[in-house]
Each structure stands twice: as C-alpha cells, then as structure tokens.
Amino acid sequence: MLGALFTEEEICEIEYLVKKELEELSFEIDDSRINHMVRRAMEERYQILFKIFKRFASSEDCIKFMRQPSQKNINE
Predict the structure, then answer these.
(1) Are 15 and 56 a contacting pair, CB within 8 Å?
(2) Which residues contact 31 (CB under 8 A, 6 or more apart)?
(3) Is-above-0.85 flag for pTM?
(4) Hey, what's the torsion of the CAs at 35, 44, 23, 51, to 10 degrees?
(5) Cβ(43)–Cβ(60) under 8 Å?
(6) How many angstroms separate the CA atoms of 39 and 13, rounded?
C-alpha cells in the first residue's frame, strides 16, 4: 500500500479526471457493438477507477457512479 498527500485543489482535479473517465467507460460499456472480451476488460477498469473515486468523493457522488449488474450477467 502506498500513501500520498494531496492539496484540496489536487483532490478536486483527481476527482474530476476520474469522474470523466468513469462517465466515458460507462457509456462505452453499454455499447452493444463492443466485443464481449473488451467490454469485460472495460468493466474491470471501471471497478478499479470506482474504488479510487470512492476515496475522494462524497457518498452522494459515489451513488451516481455505481453500476447495476446487467441482466445478461445475472442469467449467465
């Protein structure tokens, strides 16, 4: 485990960057034209970024970015 100190300005910037990446990944994951294997890798990346995001963001912001399990994954 690593530790780091950030200023408030840096925290805001990290939060902004991670939010934008989560939004982009969320949009792309839902695209049915993307290969299943690629989509799975994107979902794994989303989960890693979401864990980072949880360390900086408020619980209200975290709720906005929580992914719901898809019906396809539930039935498999």
Answers:
(1) yes
(2) none
(3) no
(4) 180
(5) no
(6) 27
Question: Mutual orientation of helices 36-56 and 8-29 as an angle, nearest 10°?
Answer: 160
The rounded radius of gyration (Å) of the Cα atoms in the chain is 14
Q: How far apart are CA 30 and CA 67, in angstroms?
A: 11
Which structure tokens are listed for 23? 């939004």
| Residue type at 15 in one-letter notation | E
CA distances to 4, 40, 50 from 62, rounded to whole Å, are 21, 21, 8
Which residue is it, tokens 């990290």? 14
Distance between CA 34 and CA 28 in Å, rounded?
A: 8
The reported pLDDT for the residue numbered 70 is: 60
The arithmetic mean of pLDDT across residues 39-56, rounded, is 94
- Nearest-10 Cα torsion for 5, 9, 15, 17: -110
